[in-house]
Write a structure and sequence with these properties.
- The chain is α/β, with parallel strands linked by helices.
- The protein folds into two domains: 237 residues, Rossmann fold, CATH 3.40.50.300; 126 residues, abc- transporter (atp binding component) like domain (Coagulation Factor XIII, Chain A, domain 1).
- The chain is built from nine helices and 20 strands.
- The strands form five sheets. Strands 5-6-7-3-8-9 form a six-stranded mixed β-sheet, with helices on both faces.
- Helix 3 packs across helix 4, helix 4 crosses helix 5 and helix 7 packs antiparallel against helix 8.
- The two termini are 46 Å apart.
Length: 421
């Protein structure tokens, strides 16, 4: 069983004002230092008991990856110490331990031996590694021709080929596709059930809440909070989005007003757009029931989607449409205006600008979802899109006191009753 104890850990890097300062300091030992120290981590202390799952949250630059590197031994601390009991498997930076000029198979043997596995063990595990990574013939190609997703597949397959006492996973899993992510999380859950200790870094706080019993919140290189995962993640979100700062004590405030509204990290990098150009969807955004722009919502309440349309030609008999779907592309809800005679019987002129507004009850389970929007010409056979934007906007639904769902993608009010027969 693996355990981790971190005490008064600190890491600082030397910064020199000029390129000659380093040389001057080296040739004049014992004299006044020519550098300053930049502390990345300071006075970090916590412990992880055997079998526990601990998430690590914090903004970019908070020191999360540096902490993991010191726990795994790839970076040495400036102050304090780390005591680890058990074999560690770690998935840190993308491609760490892989040499681009060697094949995937050769890298399996090199990376596996760095993790403490023998050549014999790796030969026995190779079929399972190939099966789990599922990259086909690429395993015998140089890693330099791999996509980032293929590197993650192979790295995770090697790191988890043999159940470790301690599994450390950095944000690298975010690179993989949704189906592979699910396969990785299933393996992580299996390891947890068998007693593996987990350290998990992610910006997805809902994922941390589901996977981890405890969480560590790093802020400016120091421990801001350590404890129950939900409590710590809530503190992290409040700090990230402004939280309670500036609110006077004793003032009665609607708790919904304290919820973060916009998460800047929820930006689509996979949008696809097409159409014949007779109209253009210029902007798409979401609002909450108070009319504020938002992409983070609590459970229940209203969710408002708006998009601004400019018509480049005179058109008629069109439909405005949208769809919400999961990360892996499963359609959850879609609607259009084809059943509304006041819309499909209307003519639009060149230069007209309108804002389409869809309002729906938020029945989504906690998670991240994608939005498609489109303007369709229903007079054509088959119908054609004037403009369609796919995966253009993301939004996230948070867990709160109105979350009833335990599994699935729909959150609806449910009741249970037990009566004597």
């Amino acid at each position: 069983m693996g355990s981790i104890s971190v005490s008064n850990l600190g890491k600082a890097y030397k910064q020199y004002p000029t390129r000659w300062s380093r040389l001057l300091e080296w040739i004049t030992p014992g004299h006044k230092p020519h550098h300053t120290l930049r502390w990345v981590l300071q006075d970090v202390s916590f412990s992880v008991e055997p079998g526990e799952s601990v998430g690590i949250v914090g903004v970019n630059g908070a020191g999360k990856s540096t902490l993991l590197k010191m726990i795994t031994g790839t970076t040495q601390p400036t102050t304090g110490g780390v005591h680890v009991n058990g074999r560690i498997a770690a998935l840190l930076e993308l491609g760490m331990g892989f040499h681009p000029d060697f094949t995937g198979r050769q890298n399996v043997f090199m990376a596996g031996q760095l993790q403490g596995l023998t050549v014999r063990q790796l030969m026995e595990l190779m079929p399972e590694i190939e099966r789990f990574a599922d990259i086909g013939d690429y395993i015998d190609q140089p890693v330099r021709v791999f996509s980032s997703g293929m590197q993650v597949r192979l790295a995770f397959a090697v790191a988890t080929a043999l159940r470790p006492d301690i599994l450390i996973v950095d944000e690298a899993l975010a690179v993989g596709d949704a189906a592979f992510q699910r396969k990785c999380f299933r393996r992580i859950e299996e390891f947890r059930a068998q007693g593996t200790t987990l350290l998990f870094v992610s910006h997805d706080v809902d994922c941390v809440k589901k996977l981890c019993s405890k969480a560590l919140f790093l802020k400016d290189g120091c421990v801001a909070a350590f404890g129950v995962a939900k409590t710590v993640c809530d503190m992290y979100e409040k700090a990230l989005f402004g939280g309670l700062e500036g609110i006077s004590a004793g003032v009665d405030i609607d708790a919904r007003l304290l919820e973060p509204l916009v998460d800047e990290s929820l930006m689509s990098n996979c949008e696809v757009a097409y159409g014949d150009g007779r109209a253009v969807i210029e902007a798409i955004w979401l609002e909450n029931e108070r009319g504020e722009r938002a992409n983070v919502f609590g459970s229940r309440g209203l969710l408002v989607l708006k998009y601004r349309v400019r018509f480049n030609e005179a058109v008629g008999r069109i439909a405005f449409a949208f769809m919400a779907k999961t990360r892996d592309g499963v359609a959850l809800f879609g609607m259009d205006t084809s059943h509304m005679p006041e819309i499909n019987g209307r003519a639009f002129a060149l230069g007209d600008i309108f804002i389409a507004r869809f309002e729906l009850e938020n029945a989504f389970a906690p998670g991240v979802y994608y939005i498609n929007c489109g303007i369709r010409d229903d007079s054509a056979d088959p119908p054609v899109f004037l403009h369609r934007r796919v995966d253009s906007v993301l939004f996230r639904v948070k867990s709160d006191e109105l979350t009833f769902v335990k599994s699935g993608v729909i959150n609806t009010v449910a009741a249970f009753e037990l009566a004597s027969a």
